[in-house]
Design brief:
The chain is α/β, with parallel strands linked by helices and about 625 residues long. The protein has 24 helices and 17 strands. The strands form three sheets. The protein has an eight-stranded mixed sheet with strand order 1-16-12-15-14-13-6-7. Strands 2, 3, 8, 9, 10, 11 and 17 form a seven-stranded mixed sheet that branches. It has a two-stranded antiparallel ribbon with strand order 4-5. The radius of gyration is 24 Å and the shape is globular.
Length: about 625
Protein backbone atom coordinates (compact mmCIF):
# COMPACT_ATOMS: atom_id res chain seq x y z
CA UNK A 1 0.00 0.00 0.00
CA UNK A 2 1.47 3.34 -1.02
CA UNK A 3 1.09 6.20 1.42
CA UNK A 4 0.90 9.71 0.06
CA UNK A 5 1.63 12.88 1.94
CA UNK A 6 -2.11 13.56 1.98
CA UNK A 7 -2.70 10.17 3.61
CA UNK A 8 -0.50 10.77 6.59
CA UNK A 9 -1.56 14.37 7.07
CA UNK A 10 -5.17 13.20 7.07
CA UNK A 11 -6.05 15.46 4.21
CA UNK A 12 -5.04 18.59 6.10
CA UNK A 13 -3.76 21.45 3.95
CA UNK A 14 -0.45 21.97 5.73
CA UNK A 15 2.15 24.65 5.13
CA UNK A 16 5.68 24.04 6.36
CA UNK A 17 7.49 27.29 6.99
CA UNK A 18 11.03 26.94 8.26
CA UNK A 19 10.14 23.34 9.03
CA UNK A 20 7.20 24.19 11.29
CA UNK A 21 3.43 23.68 11.17
CA UNK A 22 1.12 26.62 11.83
CA UNK A 23 0.09 26.80 15.45
CA UNK A 24 -3.58 26.58 14.51
CA UNK A 25 -3.05 23.04 13.27
CA UNK A 26 -1.59 21.79 16.55
CA UNK A 27 -4.96 21.44 18.27
CA UNK A 28 -7.64 18.78 17.84
CA UNK A 29 -10.77 18.92 15.83
CA UNK A 30 -14.03 18.87 17.71
CA UNK A 31 -16.07 21.10 19.97
CA UNK A 32 -16.79 21.33 23.66
CA UNK A 33 -20.27 22.01 25.03
CA UNK A 34 -20.93 25.51 26.42
CA UNK A 35 -20.81 24.30 30.04
CA UNK A 36 -17.08 23.64 29.71
CA UNK A 37 -14.21 26.09 29.31
CA UNK A 38 -12.98 26.21 25.69
CA UNK A 39 -9.57 24.77 26.60
CA UNK A 40 -10.80 21.65 28.41
CA UNK A 41 -9.72 18.75 26.13
CA UNK A 42 -11.67 15.88 27.77
CA UNK A 43 -14.94 17.52 26.70
CA UNK A 44 -13.95 17.88 23.05
CA UNK A 45 -15.82 15.64 20.65
CA UNK A 46 -15.03 14.71 17.06
CA UNK A 47 -11.63 13.29 16.18
CA UNK A 48 -9.47 12.74 19.27
CA UNK A 49 -6.62 10.39 20.16
CA UNK A 50 -3.95 10.98 17.52
CA UNK A 51 -5.66 14.18 16.45
CA UNK A 52 -4.50 16.50 13.68
CA UNK A 53 -1.13 18.08 14.45
CA UNK A 54 0.13 15.35 16.78
CA UNK A 55 2.02 13.47 14.08
CA UNK A 56 2.94 16.16 11.53
CA UNK A 57 6.51 16.86 12.66
CA UNK A 58 7.16 13.24 13.62
CA UNK A 59 6.15 12.03 10.16
CA UNK A 60 8.29 14.69 8.53
CA UNK A 61 11.31 13.20 10.33
CA UNK A 62 10.51 9.52 9.92
CA UNK A 63 8.91 9.49 6.47
CA UNK A 64 10.37 12.50 4.69
CA UNK A 65 13.82 12.70 6.29
CA UNK A 66 13.27 16.38 7.05
CA UNK A 67 15.94 18.40 8.83
CA UNK A 68 15.38 21.51 10.90
CA UNK A 69 17.56 24.53 11.68
CA UNK A 70 19.37 24.68 15.01
CA UNK A 71 18.22 27.14 17.66
CA UNK A 72 19.71 28.34 20.92
CA UNK A 73 18.54 26.81 24.18
CA UNK A 74 16.34 29.20 26.17
CA UNK A 75 15.58 27.08 29.26
CA UNK A 76 17.39 24.63 31.54
CA UNK A 77 15.94 21.79 33.62
CA UNK A 78 17.09 18.95 35.80
CA UNK A 79 14.86 16.57 33.85
CA UNK A 80 13.12 16.76 30.50
CA UNK A 81 10.54 14.07 29.79
CA UNK A 82 9.52 13.48 26.19
CA UNK A 83 5.99 12.08 26.36
CA UNK A 84 3.27 12.99 28.84
CA UNK A 85 1.58 9.60 29.03
CA UNK A 86 1.41 7.31 32.06
CA UNK A 87 5.08 6.35 31.72
CA UNK A 88 6.32 9.91 31.22
CA UNK A 89 4.26 11.31 34.10
CA UNK A 90 5.35 8.40 36.31
CA UNK A 91 8.98 9.07 35.40
CA UNK A 92 8.62 12.65 36.61
CA UNK A 93 7.01 11.41 39.85
CA UNK A 94 9.73 8.80 40.47
CA UNK A 95 12.36 11.46 39.67
CA UNK A 96 11.01 13.73 42.40
CA UNK A 97 11.06 10.83 44.83
CA UNK A 98 14.69 10.07 44.02
CA UNK A 99 16.23 13.52 43.53
CA UNK A 100 13.91 15.82 45.48
CA UNK A 101 10.63 17.65 44.99
CA UNK A 102 12.35 20.92 44.12
CA UNK A 103 13.97 19.64 40.92
CA UNK A 104 12.98 21.49 37.77
CA UNK A 105 11.11 19.21 35.37
CA UNK A 106 9.66 19.86 31.91
CA UNK A 107 7.26 17.35 30.35
CA UNK A 108 6.67 17.66 26.61
CA UNK A 109 3.73 16.04 24.84
CA UNK A 110 2.57 16.28 21.26
CA UNK A 111 -1.14 16.07 22.15
CA UNK A 112 -3.41 18.79 23.48
CA UNK A 113 -4.07 16.72 26.63
CA UNK A 114 -1.87 14.78 29.04
CA UNK A 115 -2.14 11.04 29.69
CA UNK A 116 -0.97 9.56 26.39
CA UNK A 117 -3.32 6.69 25.62
CA UNK A 118 -4.94 7.15 29.03
CA UNK A 119 -7.36 9.79 27.78
CA UNK A 120 -10.58 10.92 29.43
CA UNK A 121 -13.75 11.63 27.42
CA UNK A 122 -16.69 13.61 28.79
CA UNK A 123 -20.16 14.30 27.39
CA UNK A 124 -23.07 16.33 28.67
CA UNK A 125 -26.51 15.00 27.77
CA UNK A 126 -29.63 16.70 29.11
CA UNK A 127 -27.56 18.29 31.85
CA UNK A 128 -25.99 14.99 32.93
CA UNK A 129 -22.23 14.57 32.70
CA UNK A 130 -21.07 11.22 31.30
CA UNK A 131 -17.46 10.23 31.97
CA UNK A 132 -15.63 7.50 30.09
CA UNK A 133 -12.22 6.45 28.81
CA UNK A 134 -10.75 7.22 25.42
CA UNK A 135 -7.90 4.73 25.46
CA UNK A 136 -6.00 2.85 28.16
CA UNK A 137 -8.74 1.47 30.38
CA UNK A 138 -8.22 -1.54 32.62
CA UNK A 139 -5.57 -3.11 34.80
CA UNK A 140 -4.85 -6.80 35.20
CA UNK A 141 -5.05 -8.22 38.75
CA UNK A 142 -1.28 -8.79 38.61
CA UNK A 143 -0.71 -5.02 38.48
CA UNK A 144 -0.95 -4.74 42.25
CA UNK A 145 1.81 -7.34 42.62
CA UNK A 146 4.26 -5.15 40.72
CA UNK A 147 6.65 -3.18 42.94
CA UNK A 148 6.62 -0.07 40.73
CA UNK A 149 2.82 0.00 40.58
CA UNK A 150 2.59 -0.57 44.32
CA UNK A 151 4.93 2.35 45.01
CA UNK A 152 3.04 4.65 42.65
CA UNK A 153 -0.44 3.78 43.92
CA UNK A 154 0.66 4.16 47.53
CA UNK A 155 2.29 7.50 46.79
CA UNK A 156 -0.83 8.76 45.04
CA UNK A 157 -3.14 7.51 47.75
CA UNK A 158 -5.07 5.18 45.44
CA UNK A 159 -6.37 1.97 47.00
CA UNK A 160 -6.84 -0.63 44.24
CA UNK A 161 -9.00 -2.96 46.31
CA UNK A 162 -11.47 -0.16 46.91
CA UNK A 163 -11.41 0.95 43.28
CA UNK A 164 -11.91 -2.40 41.55
CA UNK A 165 -15.27 -2.33 39.80
CA UNK A 166 -17.77 -5.03 38.95
CA UNK A 167 -17.40 -7.23 35.89
CA UNK A 168 -18.27 -5.49 32.64
CA UNK A 169 -22.01 -5.69 31.99
CA UNK A 170 -22.91 -7.14 35.38
CA UNK A 171 -25.32 -4.30 36.16
CA UNK A 172 -27.18 -4.84 32.86
CA UNK A 173 -27.33 -8.59 33.35
CA UNK A 174 -29.10 -8.04 36.66
CA UNK A 175 -31.73 -6.17 34.63
CA UNK A 176 -32.17 -9.15 32.30
CA UNK A 177 -30.01 -7.92 29.39
CA UNK A 178 -27.52 -10.27 27.73
CA UNK A 179 -25.32 -10.44 24.67
CA UNK A 180 -26.13 -10.75 20.99
CA UNK A 181 -24.51 -11.25 17.61
CA UNK A 182 -25.14 -9.45 14.33
CA UNK A 183 -24.36 -11.19 11.03
CA UNK A 184 -24.07 -8.97 7.94
CA UNK A 185 -25.31 -9.93 4.50
CA UNK A 186 -22.01 -9.18 2.79
CA UNK A 187 -20.26 -12.02 4.63
CA UNK A 188 -23.05 -14.36 5.78
CA UNK A 189 -25.67 -14.04 3.05
CA UNK A 190 -28.21 -12.07 5.07
CA UNK A 191 -28.43 -9.50 7.84
CA UNK A 192 -29.43 -11.37 10.98
CA UNK A 193 -29.66 -10.42 14.63
CA UNK A 194 -29.34 -13.31 17.07
CA UNK A 195 -30.03 -12.84 20.75
CA UNK A 196 -27.42 -14.45 22.93
CA UNK A 197 -23.76 -15.15 22.29
CA UNK A 198 -23.07 -18.54 23.86
CA UNK A 199 -19.58 -18.62 22.36
CA UNK A 200 -18.64 -15.54 24.39
CA UNK A 201 -20.09 -17.19 27.50
CA UNK A 202 -18.03 -20.30 26.65
CA UNK A 203 -14.82 -18.26 26.48
CA UNK A 204 -15.65 -16.39 29.70
CA UNK A 205 -16.18 -19.68 31.53
CA UNK A 206 -12.86 -21.07 30.29
CA UNK A 207 -11.05 -17.98 31.51
CA UNK A 208 -12.73 -18.28 34.89
CA UNK A 209 -11.73 -21.94 35.14
CA UNK A 210 -15.28 -23.26 35.29
CA UNK A 211 -16.98 -25.78 32.97
CA UNK A 212 -18.65 -23.95 30.08
CA UNK A 213 -22.42 -24.27 29.83
CA UNK A 214 -23.16 -25.57 26.34
CA UNK A 215 -26.92 -26.07 26.55
CA UNK A 216 -27.76 -23.00 24.42
CA UNK A 217 -25.05 -23.61 21.85
CA UNK A 218 -26.87 -26.09 19.52
CA UNK A 219 -29.97 -23.91 19.17
CA UNK A 220 -27.87 -20.83 18.53
CA UNK A 221 -25.84 -22.57 15.83
CA UNK A 222 -28.99 -23.93 14.23
CA UNK A 223 -30.34 -20.38 13.84
CA UNK A 224 -27.03 -18.82 12.69
CA UNK A 225 -26.51 -18.15 8.97
CA UNK A 226 -23.81 -20.81 8.69
CA UNK A 227 -23.49 -23.88 6.43
CA UNK A 228 -24.24 -27.22 8.14
CA UNK A 229 -20.59 -28.28 7.90
CA UNK A 230 -19.45 -25.19 9.81
CA UNK A 231 -22.09 -25.71 12.45
CA UNK A 232 -20.85 -29.25 12.99
CA UNK A 233 -17.21 -28.14 13.03
CA UNK A 234 -17.90 -25.42 15.62
CA UNK A 235 -19.80 -27.94 17.71
CA UNK A 236 -16.83 -30.35 17.66
CA UNK A 237 -14.39 -27.56 18.45
CA UNK A 238 -16.25 -26.30 21.51
CA UNK A 239 -17.17 -29.75 22.89
CA UNK A 240 -13.49 -30.14 23.65
CA UNK A 241 -13.44 -33.93 23.30
CA UNK A 242 -11.54 -34.12 19.99
CA UNK A 243 -7.75 -33.94 19.94
CA UNK A 244 -7.09 -32.30 16.57
CA UNK A 245 -3.33 -32.92 16.97
CA UNK A 246 -3.60 -36.58 17.97
CA UNK A 247 -0.39 -38.49 17.39
CA UNK A 248 1.82 -35.41 17.25
CA UNK A 249 4.83 -35.77 19.62
CA UNK A 250 4.93 -33.38 22.56
CA UNK A 251 7.89 -31.24 21.35
CA UNK A 252 6.40 -30.90 17.86
CA UNK A 253 3.01 -30.16 19.41
CA UNK A 254 4.46 -27.25 21.39
CA UNK A 255 6.17 -25.88 18.30
CA UNK A 256 2.94 -26.18 16.33
CA UNK A 257 0.96 -24.20 18.90
CA UNK A 258 3.56 -21.42 18.93
CA UNK A 259 4.27 -21.26 15.20
CA UNK A 260 0.85 -21.83 13.60
CA UNK A 261 -1.77 -19.18 13.00
CA UNK A 262 -5.05 -19.83 14.78
CA UNK A 263 -6.98 -19.38 11.53
CA UNK A 264 -4.81 -22.03 9.85
CA UNK A 265 -5.48 -24.45 12.71
CA UNK A 266 -9.23 -23.81 12.50
CA UNK A 267 -9.19 -24.43 8.76
CA UNK A 268 -6.71 -27.29 8.45
CA UNK A 269 -7.26 -29.20 11.70
CA UNK A 270 -10.70 -28.25 13.02
CA UNK A 271 -12.30 -28.28 9.57
CA UNK A 272 -13.94 -24.85 9.56
CA UNK A 273 -14.94 -23.34 6.24
CA UNK A 274 -14.95 -19.67 5.30
CA UNK A 275 -18.17 -18.83 7.14
CA UNK A 276 -16.98 -20.59 10.29
CA UNK A 277 -13.68 -18.75 10.15
CA UNK A 278 -15.54 -15.47 9.81
CA UNK A 279 -17.66 -16.40 12.83
CA UNK A 280 -14.48 -16.65 14.97
CA UNK A 281 -12.37 -14.08 13.16
CA UNK A 282 -12.65 -11.09 15.49
CA UNK A 283 -12.66 -12.66 18.95
CA UNK A 284 -9.05 -11.62 19.65
CA UNK A 285 -9.27 -7.97 18.58
CA UNK A 286 -9.52 -6.41 22.04
CA UNK A 287 -6.64 -8.45 23.46
CA UNK A 288 -4.14 -8.43 20.59
CA UNK A 289 -5.48 -5.95 17.99
CA UNK A 290 -5.16 -8.92 15.60
CA UNK A 291 -7.70 -11.32 14.15
CA UNK A 292 -7.54 -15.13 14.08
CA UNK A 293 -5.12 -15.00 11.17
CA UNK A 294 -2.73 -12.75 13.08
CA UNK A 295 -2.30 -14.73 16.32
CA UNK A 296 -0.85 -18.13 17.08
CA UNK A 297 -2.80 -21.08 18.45
CA UNK A 298 -0.96 -20.56 21.74
CA UNK A 299 -2.09 -16.94 21.89
CA UNK A 300 -5.67 -17.97 21.17
CA UNK A 301 -5.61 -20.57 23.94
CA UNK A 302 -4.19 -17.98 26.36
CA UNK A 303 -7.34 -15.85 26.14
CA UNK A 304 -9.76 -18.77 26.32
CA UNK A 305 -10.43 -19.54 22.65
CA UNK A 306 -10.96 -23.27 21.99
CA UNK A 307 -8.68 -25.70 20.16
CA UNK A 308 -10.08 -29.07 21.21
CA UNK A 309 -8.83 -31.65 23.68
CA UNK A 310 -5.37 -32.05 25.22
CA UNK A 311 -4.62 -28.32 24.96
CA UNK A 312 -3.17 -25.96 27.59
CA UNK A 313 -5.65 -24.14 29.81
CA UNK A 314 -6.05 -20.37 29.42
CA UNK A 315 -3.12 -18.47 30.89
CA UNK A 316 -3.31 -14.80 30.04
CA UNK A 317 0.00 -13.19 29.11
CA UNK A 318 0.85 -10.53 31.69
CA UNK A 319 2.07 -8.32 28.85
CA UNK A 320 -1.47 -7.84 27.52
CA UNK A 321 -2.92 -4.39 28.00
CA UNK A 322 -6.50 -5.63 27.71
CA UNK A 323 -8.02 -9.06 27.98
CA UNK A 324 -10.10 -11.43 30.07
CA UNK A 325 -8.43 -10.57 33.37
CA UNK A 326 -8.39 -6.78 33.05
CA UNK A 327 -10.76 -4.74 35.17
CA UNK A 328 -11.84 -1.13 34.87
CA UNK A 329 -10.90 0.51 38.16
CA UNK A 330 -12.13 4.00 37.31
CA UNK A 331 -14.93 5.34 35.08
CA UNK A 332 -12.35 7.10 32.91
CA UNK A 333 -9.98 4.13 32.90
CA UNK A 334 -6.33 4.85 33.54
CA UNK A 335 -6.92 8.55 32.91
CA UNK A 336 -7.50 8.74 36.68
CA UNK A 337 -3.89 7.66 37.19
CA UNK A 338 -2.71 10.37 34.80
CA UNK A 339 -4.85 12.97 36.56
CA UNK A 340 -3.62 11.88 39.97
CA UNK A 341 -0.02 12.18 38.77
CA UNK A 342 -0.60 15.65 37.34
CA UNK A 343 -2.33 16.63 40.56
CA UNK A 344 0.84 15.77 42.48
CA UNK A 345 3.28 17.21 39.95
CA UNK A 346 1.36 20.45 39.23
CA UNK A 347 -1.07 20.83 42.15
CA UNK A 348 -2.08 24.37 41.20
CA UNK A 349 -3.68 22.99 38.01
CA UNK A 350 -6.29 21.07 39.99
CA UNK A 351 -9.45 23.13 40.16
CA UNK A 352 -11.41 20.61 42.23
CA UNK A 353 -10.96 17.20 43.79
CA UNK A 354 -8.23 15.64 45.90
CA UNK A 355 -5.08 16.07 43.85
CA UNK A 356 -6.84 14.95 40.69
CA UNK A 357 -7.26 11.44 42.06
CA UNK A 358 -11.05 11.40 41.90
CA UNK A 359 -13.05 11.17 38.67
CA UNK A 360 -14.86 14.46 39.35
CA UNK A 361 -11.70 16.57 39.59
CA UNK A 362 -11.52 19.51 37.19
CA UNK A 363 -8.25 20.81 35.82
CA UNK A 364 -7.18 24.27 34.75
CA UNK A 365 -5.06 23.52 31.70
CA UNK A 366 -3.82 27.10 31.66
CA UNK A 367 -1.81 26.37 34.81
CA UNK A 368 0.05 23.31 33.55
CA UNK A 369 2.96 25.38 32.21
CA UNK A 370 3.68 28.33 34.51
CA UNK A 371 6.90 30.29 35.02
CA UNK A 372 8.66 29.59 38.27
CA UNK A 373 6.94 26.29 39.02
CA UNK A 374 9.13 23.22 39.60
CA UNK A 375 7.18 21.05 37.13
CA UNK A 376 5.82 22.29 33.83
CA UNK A 377 3.73 20.29 31.37
CA UNK A 378 3.93 21.72 27.86
CA UNK A 379 1.26 20.31 25.56
CA UNK A 380 1.12 20.49 21.75
CA UNK A 381 4.92 20.13 21.81
CA UNK A 382 6.59 17.62 19.49
CA UNK A 383 10.20 16.69 20.19
CA UNK A 384 12.31 16.47 17.02
CA UNK A 385 15.85 16.02 18.38
CA UNK A 386 17.56 14.73 21.52
CA UNK A 387 21.26 15.60 21.43
CA UNK A 388 23.54 14.31 24.20
CA UNK A 389 26.67 16.17 25.26
CA UNK A 390 29.17 15.43 28.01
CA UNK A 391 27.13 16.66 30.97
CA UNK A 392 23.93 17.97 29.43
CA UNK A 393 21.43 16.93 26.77
CA UNK A 394 19.67 19.35 24.44
CA UNK A 395 16.09 18.67 23.40
CA UNK A 396 14.62 20.50 20.42
CA UNK A 397 10.86 20.60 19.93
CA UNK A 398 8.15 22.37 17.98
CA UNK A 399 5.72 24.50 19.96
CA UNK A 400 3.32 27.27 18.95
CA UNK A 401 4.69 27.43 15.44
CA UNK A 402 8.33 27.79 16.48
CA UNK A 403 11.35 25.65 17.22
CA UNK A 404 12.51 25.69 20.84
CA UNK A 405 15.46 24.07 22.56
CA UNK A 406 16.04 23.27 26.22
CA UNK A 407 19.00 21.86 28.15
CA UNK A 408 18.70 19.15 30.78
CA UNK A 409 20.85 17.20 33.20
CA UNK A 410 18.70 14.12 32.57
CA UNK A 411 16.29 13.11 29.82
CA UNK A 412 13.69 10.35 29.80
CA UNK A 413 12.15 9.58 26.41
CA UNK A 414 8.76 8.01 27.06
CA UNK A 415 7.00 8.46 23.73
CA UNK A 416 6.54 6.06 20.84
CA UNK A 417 9.54 3.77 20.67
CA UNK A 418 9.55 3.75 16.86
CA UNK A 419 10.33 7.48 16.85
CA UNK A 420 13.32 7.30 19.20
CA UNK A 421 15.88 6.39 16.48
CA UNK A 422 14.89 9.55 14.59
CA UNK A 423 15.08 11.74 17.69
CA UNK A 424 18.29 10.16 18.94
CA UNK A 425 20.34 9.06 15.91
CA UNK A 426 23.46 8.50 18.06
CA UNK A 427 21.78 5.54 19.74
CA UNK A 428 23.64 2.27 18.98
CA UNK A 429 22.48 0.58 15.78
CA UNK A 430 21.09 -2.59 17.49
CA UNK A 431 18.97 -0.44 19.80
CA UNK A 432 17.62 1.59 16.89
CA UNK A 433 16.79 -1.56 14.94
CA UNK A 434 14.88 -3.03 17.89
CA UNK A 435 12.87 0.13 18.49
CA UNK A 436 11.98 0.53 14.83
CA UNK A 437 10.80 -3.10 14.74
CA UNK A 438 8.26 -2.44 17.50
CA UNK A 439 5.45 -1.30 15.18
CA UNK A 440 2.40 -0.29 17.20
CA UNK A 441 -1.07 -1.68 16.53
CA UNK A 442 -3.73 0.76 15.25
CA UNK A 443 -7.26 0.89 16.65
CA UNK A 444 -10.20 3.16 17.38
CA UNK A 445 -12.20 3.52 20.57
CA UNK A 446 -15.34 5.37 19.54
CA UNK A 447 -17.59 6.72 22.27
CA UNK A 448 -21.18 7.52 21.38
CA UNK A 449 -23.30 9.51 23.82
CA UNK A 450 -26.87 8.23 23.55
CA UNK A 451 -29.94 10.10 24.70
CA UNK A 452 -31.26 6.80 26.07
CA UNK A 453 -30.80 3.05 25.78
CA UNK A 454 -34.38 2.05 25.02
CA UNK A 455 -33.38 0.16 21.86
CA UNK A 456 -30.94 -2.02 23.80
CA UNK A 457 -33.55 -2.64 26.48
CA UNK A 458 -36.07 -3.66 23.81
CA UNK A 459 -33.53 -6.10 22.37
CA UNK A 460 -32.57 -7.27 25.88
CA UNK A 461 -28.93 -6.76 24.91
CA UNK A 462 -26.10 -4.74 26.42
CA UNK A 463 -23.27 -6.06 24.24
CA UNK A 464 -23.14 -6.97 20.54
CA UNK A 465 -20.49 -8.85 18.58
CA UNK A 466 -20.51 -8.23 14.82
CA UNK A 467 -17.56 -10.36 13.62
CA UNK A 468 -17.17 -8.95 10.12
CA UNK A 469 -18.34 -5.36 10.48
CA UNK A 470 -15.90 -2.46 11.02
CA UNK A 471 -16.93 -2.07 14.67
CA UNK A 472 -16.83 -5.71 15.71
CA UNK A 473 -17.65 -5.13 19.39
CA UNK A 474 -19.90 -2.59 21.06
CA UNK A 475 -21.28 -2.42 24.55
CA UNK A 476 -23.15 -0.12 26.90
CA UNK A 477 -21.08 1.37 29.68
CA UNK A 478 -22.42 1.42 33.27
CA UNK A 479 -25.49 3.57 33.84
CA UNK A 480 -27.27 4.70 36.97
CA UNK A 481 -30.76 5.18 35.58
CA UNK A 482 -33.29 3.19 33.60
CA UNK A 483 -33.69 2.90 29.81
CA UNK A 484 -34.62 6.60 29.57
CA UNK A 485 -31.26 7.69 31.01
CA UNK A 486 -28.35 8.94 28.88
CA UNK A 487 -25.54 6.45 28.43
CA UNK A 488 -22.21 5.97 26.64
CA UNK A 489 -21.86 3.27 24.00
CA UNK A 490 -18.34 1.92 23.50
CA UNK A 491 -17.41 0.80 19.97
CA UNK A 492 -14.18 -1.02 19.06
CA UNK A 493 -12.69 -0.89 15.57
CA UNK A 494 -9.40 -2.58 14.66
CA UNK A 495 -8.29 -2.43 11.00
CA UNK A 496 -6.86 -5.93 10.62
CA UNK A 497 -6.61 -6.40 6.82
CA UNK A 498 -8.50 -9.73 7.20
CA UNK A 499 -7.76 -12.85 5.19
CA UNK A 500 -4.51 -11.28 3.94
CA UNK A 501 -1.94 -13.62 5.48
CA UNK A 502 0.18 -10.53 6.20
CA UNK A 503 2.66 -10.38 9.06
CA UNK A 504 1.55 -8.38 12.09
CA UNK A 505 3.88 -5.46 11.37
CA UNK A 506 2.58 -5.13 7.81
CA UNK A 507 -1.01 -5.31 9.04
CA UNK A 508 -0.32 -2.57 11.56
CA UNK A 509 1.30 -0.31 8.98
CA UNK A 510 -1.57 -0.78 6.52
CA UNK A 511 -4.16 -0.23 9.23
CA UNK A 512 -2.41 2.93 10.40
CA UNK A 513 -2.43 4.36 6.88
CA UNK A 514 -6.15 3.63 6.64
CA UNK A 515 -6.94 5.38 9.93
CA UNK A 516 -4.84 8.43 9.16
CA UNK A 517 -6.28 8.70 5.67
CA UNK A 518 -9.94 8.59 6.74
CA UNK A 519 -11.47 11.97 7.65
CA UNK A 520 -13.83 12.33 10.57
CA UNK A 521 -16.93 12.94 8.47
CA UNK A 522 -16.47 9.53 6.83
CA UNK A 523 -15.93 7.88 10.21
CA UNK A 524 -19.03 9.54 11.63
CA UNK A 525 -21.14 8.52 8.65
CA UNK A 526 -20.04 4.90 8.99
CA UNK A 527 -20.69 4.83 12.76
CA UNK A 528 -24.22 6.13 12.32
CA UNK A 529 -24.90 3.77 9.43
CA UNK A 530 -23.73 0.68 11.34
CA UNK A 531 -25.81 1.56 14.40
CA UNK A 532 -28.89 2.27 12.30
CA UNK A 533 -28.44 -1.03 10.49
CA UNK A 534 -28.01 -3.08 13.63
CA UNK A 535 -30.50 -1.39 15.96
CA UNK A 536 -33.26 -0.18 13.63
CA UNK A 537 -35.51 -3.20 14.43
CA UNK A 538 -35.75 -1.86 18.00
CA UNK A 539 -36.65 1.66 16.89
CA UNK A 540 -33.19 3.19 17.09
CA UNK A 541 -32.54 6.23 14.89
CA UNK A 542 -29.05 7.69 14.92
CA UNK A 543 -30.22 11.13 13.85
CA UNK A 544 -32.53 11.30 16.88
CA UNK A 545 -30.77 9.23 19.55
CA UNK A 546 -27.09 10.17 19.22
CA UNK A 547 -26.05 13.22 21.24
CA UNK A 548 -22.31 13.17 20.64
CA UNK A 549 -19.51 11.16 19.04
CA UNK A 550 -15.86 11.09 20.05
CA UNK A 551 -13.56 9.03 17.84
CA UNK A 552 -10.40 8.18 19.77
CA UNK A 553 -8.13 7.35 16.85
CA UNK A 554 -4.97 5.53 17.92
CA UNK A 555 -3.02 5.10 14.72
CA UNK A 556 -0.19 4.13 17.07
CA UNK A 557 -2.12 2.07 19.62
CA UNK A 558 -1.05 -1.10 21.43
CA UNK A 559 2.68 -1.59 21.90
CA UNK A 560 4.12 -4.36 19.76
CA UNK A 561 4.34 -7.72 21.57
CA UNK A 562 7.08 -10.00 20.18
CA UNK A 563 5.46 -13.09 18.69
CA UNK A 564 6.58 -16.61 17.87
CA UNK A 565 4.90 -16.17 14.48
CA UNK A 566 7.69 -13.79 13.44
CA UNK A 567 11.08 -15.47 13.20
CA UNK A 568 12.95 -12.21 13.72
CA UNK A 569 11.15 -11.62 17.03
CA UNK A 570 13.18 -14.29 18.83
CA UNK A 571 15.55 -11.81 20.45
CA UNK A 572 13.39 -8.70 20.23
CA UNK A 573 12.31 -8.62 23.88
CA UNK A 574 15.92 -8.66 25.08
CA UNK A 575 16.95 -6.13 22.43
CA UNK A 576 14.18 -3.75 23.52
CA UNK A 577 15.30 -4.05 27.15
CA UNK A 578 18.84 -3.18 26.09
CA UNK A 579 17.59 -0.23 24.06
CA UNK A 580 15.79 1.10 27.11
CA UNK A 581 19.16 1.74 28.77
CA UNK A 582 19.66 4.62 26.33
CA UNK A 583 23.03 6.32 26.50
CA UNK A 584 24.76 8.88 28.68
CA UNK A 585 22.18 10.74 30.75
CA UNK A 586 19.30 9.66 28.50
CA UNK A 587 16.96 6.80 29.32
CA UNK A 588 14.11 5.34 27.26
CA UNK A 589 10.89 4.42 29.07
CA UNK A 590 7.36 3.67 27.94
CA UNK A 591 5.51 0.42 27.39
CA UNK A 592 7.10 0.00 23.95
CA UNK A 593 10.51 -0.91 25.38
CA UNK A 594 8.81 -3.61 27.46
CA UNK A 595 7.19 -5.17 24.40
CA UNK A 596 3.86 -4.83 26.20
CA UNK A 597 0.81 -2.55 25.96
CA UNK A 598 0.11 -2.96 29.68
CA UNK A 599 -0.09 0.05 31.99
CA UNK A 600 1.93 -2.04 34.43
CA UNK A 601 4.82 -2.07 31.99
CA UNK A 602 4.54 1.67 31.39
CA UNK A 603 4.91 2.39 35.10
CA UNK A 604 7.63 -0.22 35.61
CA UNK A 605 9.69 1.16 32.74
CA UNK A 606 9.41 4.66 34.18
CA UNK A 607 10.77 3.53 37.53
CA UNK A 608 13.54 1.51 35.90
CA UNK A 609 14.63 4.46 33.77
CA UNK A 610 14.77 6.92 36.67
CA UNK A 611 16.45 4.57 39.12
CA UNK A 612 19.33 4.06 36.67
CA UNK A 613 20.09 7.79 36.37
CA UNK A 614 23.15 9.09 38.18
CA UNK A 615 22.95 12.09 40.50
CA UNK A 616 26.11 13.64 39.04
CA UNK A 617 26.95 12.77 35.48
Amino acid sequence: MSITRRDFLNGTALTIAAGMAPATLLGATGTAPPAYPPNYPPALTGLRGNHAGTFTLAHSLAREGASYPGVLADEAYDLVVVGGGISGLSAAWFYQRKFGAGRRILILDNHDDFGGHAKRNEFTVRGQRLVTYGGSAGMPPSATDNAAVQALLAGLGLAPAAQARTRLGEDYERRGLGRAMFFDAEHFGRDQWLAGDPFAAFVDARNQGVPPAMDKWPAFLAAAPLPPADRQALQRLTRGDVDFLAGMPAPARGDYLRDTRYAAFLRDKAGLGLAGLRFLRSRALDAYALDADGISVAQALAIGLPAGAAMPAPSVDARLGSGPAARLWFPDGNATLARALVGRLVPEAVAAGRGGAVPDARFDYGKLDQDGKPVRIRLNSTAIAVEPDVRITRVTYGWQGNLRRVEARHVVVAGYGMMVPFLLPTLPAPAKAALRAAVKAPMIYTKVALDNWRAFDALKTWRVHAPTMPYADLWLEPVAGGPEAPVVLHMLYVPTVPDSGMAARDRFRAGRALLLGTPFDVMERDIRAQLDRMLAPAGFRAARDIRGITVNRWAHGYSYMPSTLAADDAGLQAALAQAGQGLGNIRIAGADVAGSPSVTSAIEQAQRAVMSLQADI
